[in-house]
Batch of 4 targets.
Target 1
Amino acid sequence: MTDRTNVTDKVCIVAGAGPGTGAALCRRFAAGGYRVAMLARDEARLAALEREISGSRGYACDVTDGERVRAVVERIHADLGAPSVLVHNAVAGHFGEFLDVQAATLENTFRTNVLSLVHLGQAVAPSMLAAGHGAIVVTGNTSAWRGSATFAAFAPSKAAQRILAQSMARSLGPRGIHVAYVVIDAVIDVPWTRQMFGDKADDFFAKPSAIADTVYYVAQQDRSAWTFEADLRPFGEKW
């Protein structure tokens, strides 16, 4: 799909600019001509990405803090311009069976995976509505569909996140904002998964850059043919 030619009004927020998919998303949107506002808690990581990615700017932010999110989005407007794309990639993952799950742990996953989407979506949607267009893309995973025995502290939050995104799509879509949910049904290729699955071949893993390509494509779709849910997996993945 052809990139828009006017780069001056192309601003993308990537929330959850981690070392794997998050960094790949930042690189992909920057390559597409966007000025990228990168949100994460790790200031050192953000500084390193700023040095690497032309046109990017890091903003240290706890996305579960609504006041902080609103302040950061205001800064992004002042520094870079109004964002036309938000990619919600922030995630908290805690694992354990039901009887082992602490209530505080489950609450933490909801704050990061669900509440932060509310904060960020409400912060960016007004300017998108005023412009008459925009895209909010949320990265999810298999837990949004089903809860395995050891995902009792994680799957409920991802399922809620998916349903929240669906409600957002039905509310905001008719007013010009494309909301989409990308399910990553895969083990993503990052250093810690390579250690955990050390016996697996390269094609067992999903490449962060390939995931980012799909998210970028979805964010650019013509409004006559929008995707709400896309599911990604390596060609050999059982499903």
Target 2
Amino acid sequence: MMRAFSALRQRNFRLFWFGEMISLIGSWMQGIGQAWLVLKLTQSAWQLGLVGALQALPVLLFSLFGGILADRWPKWRVLLVTQTAAMMQALLLWALVATHSIQVWHLYILAPLLGLTSSFNLPTSRAFVVEMVGRADLPNAVALNSSIATLARIVGPGLGGAIIAASSVSVLFLLNALSFFPVIAALALINGRELHAQALHDERAAGWRNTWQELGAGMAYVWKTPTVVVMIVVVGLVLLFGSNFNVFLPLFATDVLHIGASGFGFLSAAIGVGALLASLWLAWSNHKSATRPVLIGMLAFCVLEAAFAVSRLYLLSLALIASVGFAETAFAVQALTTLQTVVPDHLRGRVMSVQVLFFDGSVPLGYLLVGWLSSSFGASYALLICALISLLVSSVGWLWRKSA
């Protein structure tokens, strides 16, 4: 069992991992609280979608520049700034709600500010993992990070809903602000001498070029490296078309399987459990990076998703959606590990920013596509179409694998 947590032997990673776990649970709690607050203020589903889009838009627009910052400065210092900024955003939101001053236009400003923080935080935190653990424990560390993200996705919303029912939504924002203290303290306690040395590139010694040249250097590397293209573009497109469960699951629970709110809860929990089991399995196995397992995982994901789309049996659908969650996490985490392994140190932040753009920044586009398909063809056919498109993309990646 200890094999599953081998990367925690590294002091710096152990500090960061436990701090990040608490912070992520708080962030998911705030997400639930923010959605509840928007509905309470506006009674409008459109406003709810607008606030979500405003929060996601900066990741789409600015994550590439976050990678440049991660390559320019010590990553733990960048993370210290981004985590502090996110804490201040949560504190301001709590103060507005607690004093009954909150209006919906405040959220139009605060949500993009949080998204801007994420656009710098995400590529930096992913690029920082290898500096904390080295290459030997990298697969285990990436999988452990995925496990706490999945655990937070399971625990955070449920805990947030219980707190809203027991007290008020303002408590959620205060608790989220407090949840940043452990990760900020962990970053402050990072021992720079224990970080695994990163080779300095010649461009650092010669002085920094301008931002656009640095961005161009990172994009050129991505485009000219087949392994990186497959891991970013192919995996990103599969996630774009196939990973839209937040939209699909409520529709399946009500219109397809006719199982109501409780059934929807079990479907959501099943996909979370499958993802958590995949993360723990990858952490235990500590697989080295390879393109073939990623492609096999994507093909399995597409087939399982198509089977879920046509299933009309609740128990079968429950098992299938758990398997979909397992397969999705398995190939996504292995793709991230492969990227972390093959990318040179001086370009890691910029490559991770491209990965964030394709994996995270494309989420709103996927939601819009799924919403249109579902309204036009129904949830079952829409998911089947998305699964078949993902299968086509995975097949192209499989044909491309030799060059990678």
Target 3
Amino acid sequence: MNGPDIKKESLKILEIGSGLGYLTYSLNKENYNAIGLDISQTAVDHAKATFGNHYICADLFEYARLNPLSFDIVILTEVIEHISKPIDFIKSILMLLKPDGKAIITSPNKSLYPPDIIWATDLPPVHCWWFSEESMTYIARSLDISVSLVNYKEYYKKNYKVISLKSLRDGRLPNSFFNENGELINEVARTKNSIKPFLQVLLTRIPFASPVFNKLKQLILTAVGSSRVLFDKDLIVCGERGNTICAILVKGPHN
């Protein structure tokens, strides 16, 4: 599947939790053979109306039972943390994959944070889990499949990111937007205007400033290493680890 002669259009790709359809559409635009699957008929109808007939509404467990060994790649972006029984969910994904097929899974990364940070993602019932790299390794081991984790070092050289831990250390959990019945109780807060993104864009666009800005970022990364506390206990800089895990699970011959 990884050979140089494999053509994009010959790879069958399934995106699970395709939502409004952006990623599936982008893959097809790049000549991949991709289908989006979502449990929401409303989302699927919207995706079809916007991007074309690349989407199906179905329950994963039933779809996997009816379509075994059908895909080379399955993609889940920010889905697995919403699932109450993630190992059973991944078992169904393995049913869909051909031998040596790959599941590409992204999810918020607990491993980036120090052990004293208990929870720094959406509260239940939105997110049921906050996975770490150890979580992904445990899941792979329990299913007898191999796993690799994407190293973000090169990405963060150009996309500098620092995370503050102060509010989390003060004992404040993220706001809950839904109650236990899944009913909306708080509107998502509007993003406040900030001069910081404007300055970052400005510095990367001015010819003489861009090399200085990038060199400064690289010096900071070199000084503090990868994905560790920056200067004090309340700041983390992303490096080899990012705020998101990207785990690649590979189906073995006996799965």
Target 4
Amino acid sequence: MSKPARRAGTAPVAPLVEGDRSGRGAAAPAKRSRTLSREGIVAAALALVDAEGLAGLTTRRLGEALGVQAMSIYHHFASKQHLLDALIDHALAAIALPPPGPDPVERVRMLAYAWRAEAHRHPKLVPLLAVHRLNTETGVRFIEAVLGLIEAVIPQRELAARYFRAFGYYLMGSVLDETVGSAKGPSAAEPVTAAYIAEHCPRLAAASQYFGATHWDRTFALGLEALLAEMARVGAAAAHVPRPRVRAKT
């Protein structure tokens, strides 16, 4: 990603440490600042999000983690939103796309597990990933690559586009539930007791034993395999749809 230009109408950010520019007497030796890079800032920001969540990512806290003044970060990122864009790009770039192979369904399966693994590496970034517009170069290339994987299974443009969306719904919903947790959402209600659930909600009482983290892998695989099987069926049908005959021009 190219370095963002300074926003119009804003003054240049002052250097971290300035020497005496007056020419009157010898200036005290300037304290050398730590060298910053976009990559270093992104790595520190991601570590901060991993530790404290998105709410803990502020330029002040990031500057402290990097050992620099907060304003120096704006030399590399025009705003906090630009930094968040870079965090999403970093996460997408870390998702290994499957290598070429003869089985297109297996390649989609590999992508699904790679996506889930990256979400679990940085679970506190997932809420941002879930709603972020992938409108950077990295983002749109990632979408293009995933569409290519889906179209290899379903060789019909409209159906492939719809299954691309359905695939995304499943992946994002599952990793949100596993990382953020639907049971951790805000609520002012006093939680009902296990005794109440056992008495009034017997189905929930019986099913809840399968909701825990020890069952996530099997549940994820169950849903993914059902989706992949349907994609393979639809793709096979689409591949055998006869094309309309084109009349020769007279």
